[in-house]
């Protein structure tokens, strides 16, 4: 069951963060989608979900990527969106002095020149936990953890947000705000 939950989690990430249209799913501006519509759309592409499976994926997600609405009728990814229909309205917060970003060493030259860019997603993702950042970096190759001078960025007018799963978000990080390069 664990392998299938992981597969369902990847599917939910894909449709709730990036491509809801592949199953005809509509996301509102805050990323919410009807669970009933999700189940119907998934079935049309050969993914057989039910409410119990969705609840299992949500409750077993190690990174708490998803949440179900209080009334149990809707689901959303809490961050990581690239879908144009989603424009989450996070509250701006003062970040801690430092946050961390996990990446692969092969991206280092580009980051030295351009900094951290959100790419197709709406935000750059940061964490307070170096171990989590290291693990994220491993997904892309040999891991590198960059330390971001987040409070200094904040003092310079950059906005920070924190998603419900404690992932910190910002639009970009200039190279000048990264203080460890190896």
Outline the secondary-structure elements.
Elements lengths: L1 H17 L14 E2 H10 L6 H10 L5 E3 L5 E4 L21 E6 L3 H7 L1 E2 L6 E3 L3 H9 L4 E6 L1 H6 L5 E2 L5 E3 L1 E2 L9
Antiparallel strand pairs: 1-3, 2-3, 4-7, 5-10, 6-9, 8-9
Shape: elongated
Which CATH class of the largest domain is shown? Answer: Alpha Beta
Note the quaternary state here.
single chain
CATH architecture heading of the largest domain: Alpha-Beta Barrel
Summarize the structure.
The chain is of the alpha+beta class and 182 residues long. It has helices at 2-18, 35-44, 51-60, 108-114, 130-138, 150-155; strands at residues 33-34, 66-68, 74-77, 99-104, 116-117, 124-126, 143-148, 161-162, 168-170, 172-173.
Account of the 3D structure:
Strand 2 (66-68) and strand 3 (74-77) form a beta hairpin. The chain is an alpha+beta fold and 182 residues long. The mean pLDDT is 92. Strands 1-3-2 form a three-stranded antiparallel β-sheet. Strands 6-9-8 form a three-stranded antiparallel β-sheet, with no helix packed on it. Helix 1 packs across helix 3 (51-60). It has six helices and ten strands. The radius of gyration is 17 Å and the shape is elongated. The chain has two domains: 2-77, Orthogonal Bundle (Arc Repressor Mutant, subunit A); 99-177, ADP-ribosylation fold, CATH 3.20.170.
């Amino acid at each position: 069951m664990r392998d299938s939950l992981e597969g369902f989690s990847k599917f939910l990430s894909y449709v709730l963060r990036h491509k809801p249209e592949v199953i005809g799913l509509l996301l509102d501006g805050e990323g919410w989608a009807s669970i009933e519509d999700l189940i119907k759309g998934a079935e049309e592409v050969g993914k057989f979900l039910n409410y119990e499976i969705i609840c299992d994926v949500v409750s077993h997600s190690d990174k708490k990527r998803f949440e179900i609405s209080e009334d149990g009728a809707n689901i959303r990814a809490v961050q990581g969106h690239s879908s144009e229909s989603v424009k989450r309205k996070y509250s701006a917060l003062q970040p801690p002095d430092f946050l961390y970003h996990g990446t692969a060493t092969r991206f280092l030259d580009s980051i030295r020149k351009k900094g951290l860019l959100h790419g197709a997603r709406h935000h750059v993702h940061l964490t307070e936990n170096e171990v989590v950042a290291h693990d994220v970096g491993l997904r892309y190759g040999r891991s590198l953890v960059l330390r971001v001078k987040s409070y200094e960025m904040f003092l310079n007018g950059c906005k920070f947000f924190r998603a419900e799963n404690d992932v910190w978000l910002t639009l970009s990080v200039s190279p000048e705000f990264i203080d460890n390069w190896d």
